[in-house]
Write a structure and sequence with these properties.
Na+/H+ antiporter like fold, single chain, globular, about 325 residues, mainly alpha
């Protein structure tokens, strides 16, 4: 059976299902405490696997194109946050302060890895550069995202203190990641043989964090705070942000004289934000009662970027290189 083109990917459908489940059957009390403990273990496992999957050879192979990588990282960790700050006067009239925190958090996240590389490959772009930039973005994001969160949200009581956030990042994310890198020579082959099963573990950890976060948010009155009109506003805001970044990455690529293959890597790596990194980082960086609201903008942007980039990848792939 042919999958309808407009049907979201399986992960997005599962996310919708989890949010619906949390909306009608939220976990609370002792169950919520147990699930919170489980999510901490799952997040550590998630980053251990990320560390073990990151190929040093692929990263080194793409590092020679430093100008392209520098531009991609600038868009990911500088242009995006500046855009979020510049939109504050407009967004303050459209969404709640808590949702605006979610927008800022979205802006400081690293790029995706799998989908950035996949779309670059489909579009016949510079795959080696995409592998290097996306991997570097996620590695740098482990350190830089918490710093930017503490910098941008310093006045908010919703986020933890900077020192507390750094400690949590170190022992919940960084140490498992380093352990995965150390273990890579012994488990890389095993990972490759069981990549489908490990992908399920990867996705399950994200789904569990989302369920626990939205359960607590629902108990706190999430859907009274975020009506349908505000969800539509969030979707429009995400579309505007994505459109601005895609346009800027394309323009800057041409001004810098990059090849079409490099432009493709820049557009796909520089315009995307990682749900896989964002969900566990939010769990570490934000107070639990605010987590569900903070994650809403990321979930909406995640789906929108996949749909838009899928269309763009097909158009890039259909280009005539002889022109």
């Amino acid at each position: 059976m042919i999958r309808p083109r407009l049907l979201p990917d399986n992960m997005t459908l599962l996310l919708f299902a989890v949010v619906l489940t949390a909306s009608f059957i939220p976990c609370a009390g002792a169950v919520a405490v147990g699930f919170n403990t489980l999510t901490m273990g799952m997040i550590a496992l998630l980053f251990f696997m990320h560390g073990a999957k990151l190929s040093r050879a692929a990263v080194i192979a793409g590092m020679t194109h430093w100008r392209l990588h520098l531009v991609i990282l600038t868009f990911t960790f500088a242009v995006f946050p500046l855009l979020g700050l510049m939109l504050k006067p407009v967004l303050s009239h459209l969404i709640t302060p808590e949702l605006y925190l979610g927008i800022l958090f979205l802006c400081v996240l690293p790029s995706t890895v799998q989908s950035s590389i996949a779309f670059t490959s489909v579009a016949r772009g510079n795959v080696a550069a995409a592998v290097c930039s996306a991997s570097a973005s996620n590695l740098i994001g482990i350190f830089l995202t918490p710093f930017l969160v503490s910098l941008l949200l310093a006045s908010s009581s919703t986020s933890h203190s900077s020192f507390d956030a750094i400690l949590k990042i170190v022992y919940q994310l960084l140490l498992p990641f380093i352990a995965g890198q150390i273990a890579r020579p012994w488990i890389a082959a095993w990972q490759a043989r069981h990549k489908n099963a490990l992908k399920m573990v990867d996705q399950s950890s994200i789904l569990l964090v989302v369920y626990v976060a939205f359960s607590e948010a629902v108990v706190q009155g999430l859907w009274r705070q975020v009506p349908l009109s505000m969800l539509l506003s969030l979707s429009a805001i995400s579309a505007v942000m994505l459109g601005v970044i895609v346009s800027l990455t394309s323009y800057v690529s041409r001004r810098f004289g990059f090849s079409k293959e490099d432009e493709i890597a820049l557009v796909f790596c520089g315009s995307k934000k990682s749900l896989a990194s964002g969900v566990p980082m939010a769990k570490v960086l934000f107070a639990s009662h605010a987590l569900g609201v903070v994650l809403l903008p990321l979930m909406i942007f995640h789906q929108l970027q996949l749909m838009v980039c899928a269309v763009m990848a097909q158009r890039y792939a259909a280009r005539d290189d002889k022109k």
